[in-house]
Amino acid sequence: MARAPGLYSRVIAWAKIVLPLVALALLSTIFLLSDRREPMETVPFVEALQDGETTREGVSAPYYSGKTQRGDFLTMTATRVRPQSDGRVVADDLAAAVRLTDGSEILLDALSATLTDSTETALLEGGVRIRSSTGYTLDTDAMTTVLDRIEAETLGPVSGAGPLGTLEAGRMRIEASGTGGDVQLLFTEGVKLVYQPPKEGSSAE
Predict the structure, then answer these.
(1) What is the DSSP secondary structure assignment for residue 2, as one 8-state letter?
(2) What values do phi and psi take at 164, rounded to 5?
(3) Which residues contact 146 (CB under 8 A, 6 or more apart)?
(4) C-beta of residue 143 within 8 angstroms of C-beta of residue 156
(5) In Å, how far are 86, 99, 115, 167, 173 from 150, measured between CA atoms?
(6) Domain annotation for the chain: domains and CATH numbers
(7) Which of 8, 17, 168, 178 has its CA 20 to 30 A from that of 41?
(8) In this structure, how many other beta carbons lie within 10 angstroms of the beta carbon of residue 191?
(9) Which segments within 29-85 are labelled E, that is strand?
(10) Where would I find the H helices in 47-145?
């Protein structure tokens, strides 16, 4: 079949214009659909380790602050942090504070913490103390916590005291009940509570 005069050259000319535009549109779509990470997009203390010799030797007294996905404010300090060959960061004497959007606070203290950037998690070991402004003081051997949202769980038994008395449990989980919901301490796997009534004269008004 004969080709219309000039049709082929016109198609080529339009292709030279249209194809680059299509390619640009596809690239734009890829960037628009890519994961936009929250402000806390790197593991705490990594920036402090990105300077010369400190990468090998570690950094003393680092400080980190950031926000979770729901707007809770997180701060972390340690006596020292050291990078590991597998990309993780080990922090000695970690102290973390989470100020929740409702004004309450959760404090975590651990002898050692291993923070992993790829999963945005931390493993707290060597004895962990959990304190909350709602009146709980609890101890456990180790626990895991997520760095970009309120989610943590002990790896074994937890014991301590709360507003109602002393308690023991096989495990404890800290989580938020939905987006912007209350943060809850959930005790599971055999919970033992010894109720201690308020001392005379100390009841709330």
Answers:
(1) P
(2) -100, -10
(3) 120, 121, 152
(4) no
(5) 26, 11, 16, 23, 10
(6) 47-195 (2.60.450.10)
(7) 178
(8) 14
(9) 59-60, 63-67, 73-77, 80-83
(10) 54-57
Q: What amino acid occupies position 95?
A: A
CA 205 to CA 189: how far, in whole Å?
35
**With contact defined as beta carbons under 8 Å apart, do 70 and 38 qualify?**
no
pLDDT digits (tens), the chain, 205 positions? 555 555 555 555 555 444 444 444 443 333 333 344 444 445 566 665 555 445 556 788 888 888 877 788 888 899 998 888 787 889 999 999 988 888 889 899 999 999 887 888 899 999 999 998 988 899 999 999 988 788 899 999 999 998 888 999 999 998 887 655 678 888 899 989 898 777 665 544 4
Half-sphere exposure (CA, 13 Å, Cβ side) for 66?
22
Q: How do 137-140 and 158-162 pair as beta strands? A: antiparallel
Place of tokens 């970009």: 148
Instruction: Tally DSSP H helices, then E strands, for the chain.
Output: 2, 15
Q: What is the CA radius of gyration of the chain?
A: 26
At residue 191, the 3 state secondary structure works out as: coil
In angstroms, rounded to a whole number, what is the distance separating the alpha carbons of residues 13 and 193? 80
| Residue 87 identity | G
